[in-house]
Amino acid sequence: MRYATIGTSWITEAYIDGAKSVPDTEIYAVYSRDAAKAEAFAKKHGAKMYFTSLEEMAACKEIDGVYIASPNSLHYEQSLIMLKAGKHVICEKPLAINPEEVESLIELADKNNLVYMEAIMMLHTPALRLLKEGIGKLGSITTAHVDFCQLSSKYPAYLRGETPNIFNPDLGTGCLMDIGVYNVHFAVELFGMPDKIHATARFMKTGADSHGTAIFEYPDKLVSLCYSKVAQSRTPSYILGDEGSIEIESVSKLTNIYAVDKNGERSLIFGDSEKDVLMGNEARSFYNYITEPEKFKAEYEHTKQASLNVSKVMKEIRSLIGEFKF
Ligand SMILES: NC(=O)c1ccc[n+]([C@@H]2O[C@H](COP(=O)([O-])OP(=O)(O)OC[C@H]3O[C@@H](n4cnc5c(N)ncnc54)[C@H](OP(=O)(O)O)[C@@H]3O)[C@@H](O)[C@H]2O)c1
Fold first, then answer.
1. Which terminal residue of the chain has fewer beta carbons within 10 Å of its beta carbon, N or C?
2. Which among 92, 121, 150 is the end of a domain?
3. pTM (global) more than 0.85
4. What CATH number did the domain enclosing 249 receive?
5. Please, are residues 107 and 83 in contact by the beta-carbon 8 Å criterion?
């Protein structure tokens, strides 16, 4: 499988590193808006070709699939170009801005027997199965708290009066779209679609949301979500049942997960995972869905539905908050 990349930041490099663990997978081409950057990036990663035109890259017959890691607002258009040209697509989170876009690209991919999936680490790590097994032992679950607050390395630039991409709402970014998407994936994967959502957020001078909180109501449980790009949390997320609880250090990576029994005894469910391993897991899923579609059909269908459901929930959160530009 020969793949190409869009985007030249560290996350594309992490994907390229991760994909090295996938058999029969080769980086073939890279795209950048800037020719010198494209050439240097291709050379650094051993890609045979580089492009500054998406249309020309899409027309390249040697490329089977494309990994997209551009600003969020470009995901839909770039995925559309690649899917129309017959390329499989693995696109960074969130798959697109709106669920209508996600749905139309899923339909296009399905019609043309192409894979179109979101690069969301938690759905592709073996920790997910172990976490679900642990949840099965908690008895009746009434409460969960999903925390992902990570102080952005770009916050100082914002404080200096700049508008880094991550705080530029014209690019479909901000806290919910960048970090909150992980909280939502976590809640929807483990508890399903909520019956009712409450949500609020605070906004920056750029118009991007800096932090937010949401409550998902289910018939038997309440799940709170807390996400921020302007503060760092050090406390784990948790799921509480009447037979015990589970603590999760990272809801995006599903790492350092502990079961805590009724007496407070802690036992490790899953430890740490390096970034390249996590990216390798999703790269392997991409490869599996392409090369063995029948064997992995149920898993692939599940991930597509998860991405669509999450996109619907994110849209509802934005509409409840009401101050989003998109
Ligand atoms: N899975 C993860 O852990 C993870 C981590 C970080 C980010 N992400 C996701 O990866 C994507 C990229 O995030 P990022 O932080 O890397 O973004 P970024 O640095 O702002 O942009 C990524 C790439 O897109 C191109 N680009 C930048 N600004 C652009 C603009 N205004 N118009 C067109 N192209 C532009 C640049 O490539 P060229 O200059 O070479 O064209 C850049 O290398 C996002 O969707 C984000 O959610 C995922």
1. C
2. 121
3. yes
4. 3.30.360.10
5. no
